[in-house]
Amino acid sequence: MALARLSTLSLTLLFAISLAGCGSSGGSSPPPPTITISGTVSSATDGLAIKSAQVRLVNIQTQQYEVDPVLTDANGFYTFKVSPGSYEVRVAAQGHKPSPVDGIAGIPVSQTSTFDVALRPIDPGVYGSLKMHLVGYNESNGALVILNDPSTGDSYTGTTSNKGDLTMYNIPVAAGNYSITIKALGHETYTYLASITISDGVETVINNITLTAINGFSVSGAVTFLAVANGEVDVSLTDKDTGAVIPGTNVTTVNANYLISSVAPGSYYIRASFNVDGYVVDPDSIVKFGEPEAVVAAADLTNQNIDVTGAVALTSPVTNTDGTPVEVNSLTPTLSWQPYSSTSDYVVEVRDANGDVVWGGFDATLNKLVNPSAATTSIVYSNDGLGLPLENGKVYRWKVYASKDDVKEATGWKLISASEDAQGVFKVVIP
Q: Which 8-state DSSP code applies to residue 325?
């Protein structure tokens, strides 16, 4: 199971560009710079606009929502004006799958641009939604909300806005068997003990949930750089069960050390990194020792260490230096990368803007689907005829995993590295 968790972890390494500094306004000083991110949300099946879809911008480095969400208008249109930085657009709507899909990094947006989203319908069923409002906590960080169904073991997650608001869509109908857990930096973990009924087509509303402030404890440790020069990486805490980032816990290492303060008691995974910095969490360490874990109880935690290693470097197509997708003028582009030391073979994977795999990657039992040899450093998209056709004007992301034969593993191999998620973002533009 460690290898299965590893695949999820590898897929959630994110691209980040530091926010540009903004001077204060006042006097004759010019206003701080802004960028505009706008677009439309429509149905992937019929192309019709989706009204009242919830659109959010996540700061990729901090994994926080820095502005309140907006709802699309009757034409499916949305717009944001935000400080310069790197963001991903996240969209949710009743009756549709979210974009990107859960657990997958979004396409980075880092300048004034148009970002259209086509949502796919959810599986047939009976669904409701849940809306809530929190008070009494540091809204600037937001809070992680986990809706649990003890009868099935299913969980649904979301992060509140700057005003403490959150709406969860497409919750299967159930009477009285949901509970809520809320985790926020500097506050006790909150459990909503009353049963919650989700009804067909109905928005269940829970107002004014109050969180209790605490000093909390600190989690600290060192980052070890394996077979690669030392540098800086981002470190954060994630919910152990869902993998969601605890808002406000993202920090950057100083001299290969990190410190996260005001952490509530509980169990967390420690993950790094979010920046495009040439590093990925060492897959072999996770397979051998499990994901780095912090069990916070009644004291500060020290020596919670993390191993990182060098990422597989992509050659072409590679995201533009300003974070925008590079344009390719082919429906069957050649994907190329630099050789990675000690690998036995590679696995190539391509996903669309919603995070769905369109070619390669791994199947449900971790079989390698597009598996070039160690001597290969390029491949033509869908050279086996099994890839979904790329579409003109659409954005895609590709990555490469490095695999090494290992008879001690049940699969006969282990992952030793991967490319960083946002290095291979491209847009198909046919003249």
A: P
Count Cβ atoms within 10 A of the Cβ of residue 269 and give its class: 0-12 exposed, 13-18 middle, 19 or more buried. Answer: buried
- Write phi, then psi, for 56 (nearest 5 degrees): -130, 150
Q: Are 249 and 237 in contact (CB under 8 A)?
A: yes
Which residue do the tokens 């549709």 mark? 96
Q: pLDDT of 203-246, one tens digit each?
A: 888 887 888 889 999 999 999 888 788 888 888 899 988 888 88
Token pair of 291 as six digits: 């994901």
Strand order in the sheet with 251-252: 251-252, 234-239, 266-271, 293-296
pTM to 2 decimals? 0.75
Q: Are residues 255 and 243 in the same domain?
A: yes
Residue type present at position 416: I
The predicted model gives 404-412 an average pLDDT of 87
Same domain as 54, residue 39? yes
- One-letter amino acid at 47 equals G
Q: Is 317 left (phi over 0), alpha (psi -120 to 50) or beta?
A: beta
Give the other-Cβ count within 10 Å of 31's Cβ.
Answer: 8
Q: Which two tokens stand for residue 360?
A: 């390669």
Work out the burial of residue 225: count CB atoms within 10 Å of its CB; fewer than 13 is exposed, 13-18 middle, 19 or more buried: middle
- Are 340 and 417 in contact by the 8 Å Cβ rule? The answer is yes
Tokens of 192: 């909503």
Q: Judge whether 59 and 110 are in contact, CB under 8 Å.
A: no
Separation CA 117–CA 120 (nearest Å): 10
Q: Which of 85-89, 109-113, 344-348 has the highest average model confidence (pLDDT)?
A: 344-348
How far apart CA 365 and CA 370 sit, in angstroms, is: 14
Question: End of a domain among 122, 137, 172?
Answer: 122
User: In this structure, are 228 and 188 located in the same domain?
Assistant: no
* End-to-end Cα, the chain, rounded Å: 46
> Do the beta carbons of residue 428 and residue 392 sit within 8 Å?
yes
Contacts of 229 (CB under 8 A, 6+ apart): none
Counted domains in the chain: 4
Whether 285 shows a pLDDT value over 90: the answer reads no
Residue in 224, 225, 234, 134 with CA at minimum distance from that of residue 187:
134
